[in-house]
Design goal:
Elements (H helix, E strand, L loop, with lengths): L6 H18 L9 E4 L16 E3 L3 E4 L2 E12 L2 E10 L2 E12 L2 E6 L2 E7 L2
Antiparallel strand pairs: 1-2, 1-8, 2-3, 3-4, 4-5, 5-6, 6-7, 7-8
């Protein structure tokens, strides 16, 4: 007859294992998803205007006349994600290597080596 394990020991092992899986699992879009702007005054600017904020999700982003869809976006480090973006920029199809870096309330968006810093909108 197999030895019985204490239920509290099993539960503790599950909690520790779950914590390890969460800490080392894929990052959630919640880390970078949201609305970001170069200036907080632009957070409420409508998308029809050129200084509209960037609206970012796990699937891609929209900003004024730029609409991008991510492919292969994966966490590449603490607070960093990298992948490809297929975009329509003013109706013209373009693709970029993209990197997202979040530090506090600042997002650095890098597209084909060109970076810009954005602030998280409240």
């Amino acid at each position: 007859m197999p030895a019985r394990r204490h239920p509290m020991i099993n539960a503790a092992a599950v909690v520790v294992g779950l914590g390890f899986a969460i800490a080392n699992g894929p990052a959630h879009a919640a880390d970078y998803a949201g609305t970001w702007a170069a200036d907080l005054a632009n957070c409420k600017t409508p998308q029809e205007q050129a200084d509209a904020p960037l609206v970012l999700s796990s699937k891609g982003y929209d900003q004024h006349e730029t609409h991008c869809t991510f492919s292969g976006l994966k966490q590449s480090g603490a607070g960093e994600w990298a992948g490809k973006a297929a975009c329509s920029v003013e109706g013209d199809s373009q693709s970029f290597d993209v990197k997202l870096t979040v530090s506090g309330d600042t997002l650095t968006l890098t597209e084909d080596g060109a970076s810009r810093d954005l602030l998280r909108c409240p």
